[in-house]
Amino acid sequence: MEPIIELKQVTKSYGAKTVLKGINLTIYPGQVIGYIGPNGAGKSTTVKILCGLISDYEGEVIVAGIDIKTDPLAVKRRIGYVPELAELYDVLTPAEFLGFMGELYGMPKALAEDRMIKMLAAFGLEANADQRMDTFSKGMRQKVLIISGLLHNPDIIILDEPLSGLDANSVIIVKELLHKLAQDGKTIFYCSHMMDVVEKVSDRIVLINEGAVIADGSFEELQQQQGNQSLEKIFAHMTSKDSLSDAADQMMRAFEN
Amino acid sequence: MNIVNRFFLYLVLLPSKLYQKMGINTVQLASILSIKLMMDDRRPNTMHQANKRKQTKPISGATIGTMLVSALMGSFFLISFFVGSEMLTRFTIYFSFFIFVLSSTLIADFTSVLIDIRDNIIILPKPVTDKTFVVARLLHILIHISKLVVPMTLPAFILLGIRNGLLALPPFLLMVIAATLFTIFLINALYLIILKITTPEKFKVIISYFQIFFAILFYGGYQIVPRLIGKAVLDNYTINTASYAFFIPSYWFAGGWEFLHSFQFSVPLITCFLLSIFVPLASIYIVIKYFAPSFNQKLSMISGSEGESMPVIVSGIKQPRPKNSFINTIANLLTDAGAEKMAFLHTWKMTGRSRDFKLKVYPSLGYILVYFVMIFLRDKRPALSSIKQNSNTEKLIFISIIYFSSLILITAINQLMYSDKYKAAWIYFTTPIAKPGKIISGALKSLLVKFYLPIIVLTFFGAIIFEGPRVIPNLFLGLCNQLLIIFLIGYATIRNLPFAQAQNLSKSSFMRGLLTLLIPGTIAFLHYSIYTFMPVVIILSILSCIAAWLVMDALKNKGWEIITELKEGY
């Protein structure tokens, strides 16, 4: 099978600080990749490179056989991106915002309209389609963002903490949705700090720390390497130098005087 | 979308064929532009954001408001056509106004309206070419500027048409366009310089200082310059004799107009004309060629560094914790321990660090300073000696200086409740605070020390030097009255906790506005009428001092029932 995403020796620095130190990844269609790492490990930078937001990196990034540097538009058309922060133009209504997204992807207006209404309805937002989003809760905004990433039916979906602010029922919907999208042959690149979710939804987990991949494999494979424990424990074991329970002890000792 | 936006959109999309030839996706271009214009229409008017706190909730038709305001500004510029001895001078002054006001408006608009960093996350991951995006941004800027410039220059067009005939208009139009391009270049250059010398995080802070500075300079210049120079001098003034004239950009545009209007082939006029055409063209070329691309990069840097910059953790070495600072000592002196002291320090830090607060309060500090200067410039002869001879003038100046300074405090108090981060006010509610009145009194004391103490010191020294010690009782009464005013206003009008309210959710309260003017006004009038009766002044000082103390105490003891203006959600 042809890989859908290939990163070869991708390096990126901001001034003197090297954020990515030669990332190599080969991802095949239909995989759900859980991309995890501590704060500042380089997750967001990788995502921004994949989305074409950062172009001054070194190394090679090939998406669906296309080098992102030579034809960024062709790559962007195949990617759906759900950003981490609830970044949207909140003076607009979901219908206006999503219509705008559809136009940027060059979708026919009727198709975008139809799909948007169905997707909003699925998330229970059809009544809010024509309300300005500045009155929306965090979860409602996140739902609109998720729809904006899926609207044009992309092959690759990049999600950055997509569950933040969602209530438990919506979390179930999104998790189920990810599963179905993957079955449909779509590739999902899932960045998160919520280890229990990553453990459940991902076919393959990529752990990065300080700009380098330090673990790569299915959850079972990681368990074989690191001992039979939860992803949370494996994560802590591989990325933290100090014992974390010491930190908790220290915390408790602060009460002593 | 309203008719104005639709018209401009139609206009800029006319050369669609040309755009397509340039490799621009016109469908995306149109959709980016229309969404941007739609958002502009729903945004509070940035031109007067500083003055306008009250907004009805869903804003629409902001465009019309902006246009009306800039038409009003444009009518002010007409003053320049009534001074000076000939058109060249008048146009120089006109274009100076124009460039200055336009750039100070655009400085604010560039960060808040025209360059929206959310674009980086929302539009750039979509299949939009950089070229399409940059052109969309440029056209958006063009439309936005047209919406300012057209109404701003309309009054001058009308006046010129009536006075100098219709033939005066086409050259003027050309020069307005040239001056506008030049202003855009100025703003771009300024932005790039600021981005060069500072970190993106500080960028907005610096821009806001520029805004404050511009606002004060404009107001001050408008009030003081004519008083300094005098009407007779102004009427005969001509810029032609000044050797530095060629260094003033507005002189080029004035000369360009003169040349096109009169067709005098004199060397200075031709030079002006050439400068007025080629400098803007060259500068706009530089903007498109060099600034626009790096602008995007810089801006993605702004948004990038917000998410990615990690806190610098100095491991191992323990940072020395700041000891009892100066302000802590003052807080200990002036406030009760606990909630009041906490509020004092909190307010002290917030007012020093919140961009929003500074942007709203500091310009008014500047205006009041300008007013002080104006009082002294009112008579063109040396003012102080004449003041001494005329005791009524003396009284008036004294009273107005003392009581006008309370306006500074009132502005600060009005702004005290508001913050972008109003939700952080949960700290007041989760901590066991019995009397929120203490928080208010602590905050007021903090404002008093920060904004009033320097003024007291200045006026005391100034008054004693100029007037001698006989003025001390009146000064003392003034001081006590100020304290009384502040605590009275605090007692009567504050219905919320410091920094606990969202800016645009406030409802305008007519009573509050009236009270805040009525209290100092009445007290100032009373003080004025007893100014010369020393015993009364002394007795009243003591009474006022006691009253201030009592009101403060009453304020401290106010309970939670006074906090009535809280947003739902706590």
SSE blueprint and pairings:
The complex is a heterodimer of chains A (257) and B (570).
Chain A: E1 5-14, E2 17-27, E3 32-36, H1 43-50, E4 58-63, E5 66-67, H2 72-78, E6 79-82, H3 94-104, H4 109-122, H5 138-150, E7 156-160, H6 168-183, E8 187-191, H7 195-201, E9 204-209, E10 212-217, H8 219-226, H9 231-239, H10 244-253
Parallel strand pairs in A: 3-8, 3-9, 6-7, 7-8
Antiparallel strand pairs in A: 1-2, 1-4, 4-5, 9-10
Chain B: H1 3-12, H2 16-21, H3 26-42, H4 62-77, H5 87-114, H6 118-122, H7 130-164, H8 169-197, H9 200-229, H10 231-236, H11 249-262, H12 267-308, H13 326-334, H14 339-353, H15 355-377, H16 383-389, H17 391-416, H18 426-430, H19 436-467, H20 472-493, H21 510-530, H22 534-556
Helix pairs in contact in B: 3-7, 4-7, 5-7, 5-8, 5-9, 5-11, 7-8, 8-11, 8-12, 9-15, 11-12, 13-14, 14-19, 15-17, 17-19, 17-20, 17-21, 19-20, 19-22, 20-21, 20-22
User: How many individual β-strands of chain A?
Assistant: 10
Fraction of helical residues of chain A: 40-55%
Shape of chain B: globular
Q: What is the CA-atom radius of gyration of chain A, in angstroms?
A: 20 Å
Task: Please give a structural write-up.
The complex is a heterodimer of chains A (257) and B (570). Helices cover 40% and strands 23% of the residues of chain A. Chain A is of the alpha/beta class and 257 residues long. In chain A, the strands form two sheets. Chain A has a six-stranded mixed sheet with strand order 6-7-8-3-9-10, sandwiched between helices. Chain A has a four-stranded antiparallel sheet with strand order 2-1-4-5, with helices on one face. The longest helix of chain A has 16 residues. The N and C termini of chain A lie far apart (63 Å). By secondary structure, chain B is mainly α. Chain B has two domains: 233 residues, no CATH class; 237 residues, no CATH class. In chain B, helix 5 packs antiparallel against helix 7, helix 17 runs antiparallel to helix 19 and helix 20 packs antiparallel against helix 21. Chains A and B meet through helix 1, helix 2 and helix 3 of A and helix 3, helix 6 and helix 12 of B.
